[in-house]
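Lab notebook, design round three. We kept the backbone fixed and only want residue identities now. Task for the bench partner: fill in a sequence for the structure below.
Input structure tokens:
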């Protein structure tokens, strides 16, 4: 990885694979922008009031995902803005569906050049995913702030980053876990498969300690 070029890093993985944590660690280390679709979408909504955007507000309020076409447009527009000042962008779980991948990935490649794009899959088993989800607490203000349940971190604990409150994001029940598993298999994996057809994907063992996952990513980036 050379430092004079603008770089995009795509991180994929099951929910609870630690991709958010890794994106944050990496962003702190290399000074890149940490991009999540949900946060950028919420920001975008604040500054746009067209009919398409208004519809996303309603979807979001009812707990649904933003529409793929709108999301793709938003991601590309935000990317164009961010990359003007950032050295690079780390996409945390974006694109989330095949449609988004088809619209977003080739554009980013065209924009920054194939040699400046890195794609990682942080791999954990289904069993490990279930174990982790039960212990995870997420900030209700910024989903990039994720903590593991402990004596110091309980539901209702103020987020150490000083914004929201920590909450279990996924209810500890079988239906929600199954839904997340299905979502990953039916939505995220087709996106990853599509990208795999266009670009090299580096698989990282996500069941290692956080620092080791980080080291593997740094090594693969040639840093
Ligand atoms: Zn927070």
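Proposed sequence:
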């Amino acid at each position: 990885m050379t430092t004079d070029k603008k770089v995009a890093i795509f991180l994929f993985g099951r929910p609870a694979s630690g991709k958010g944590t890794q994106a944050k660690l990496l962003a702190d280390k290399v000074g890149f922008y940490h991009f999540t679709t949900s946060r950028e979408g919420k920001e975008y909504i604040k500054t746009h009031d067209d009919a398409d955007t208004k519809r996303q507000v309603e979807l979001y309020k009812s707990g649904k995902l933003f529409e793929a076409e709108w999301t793709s447009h938003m991601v590309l527009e935000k990317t164009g803005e961010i990359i003007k000042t950032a050295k690079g962008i780390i996409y945390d779980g974006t694109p989330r569906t095949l449609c988004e991948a088809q619209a977003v990935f080739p554009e980013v490649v065209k924009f920054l050049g194939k040699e400046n794009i890195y794609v990682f899959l942080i791999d954990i088993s289904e069993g490990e995913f279930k174990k982790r989800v039960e212990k995870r607490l997420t900030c209700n203000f910024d989903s990039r702030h994720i903590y593991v349940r402990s004596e110091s971190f309980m539901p209702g604990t103020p987020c150490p980053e000083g914004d929201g409150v920590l909450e279990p994001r996924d209810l500890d029940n079988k239906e929600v876990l199954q839904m997340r598993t299905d979502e990953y298999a039916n939505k995220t994996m087709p996106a990853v498969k599509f990208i795999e057809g266009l670009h090299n994907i580096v698989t990282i063992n996500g069941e290692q300690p956080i620092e080791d996952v980080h080291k593997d990513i740094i090594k693969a980036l040639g840093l």
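Keep this in mind before ordering anything: The mean pLDDT is 91.
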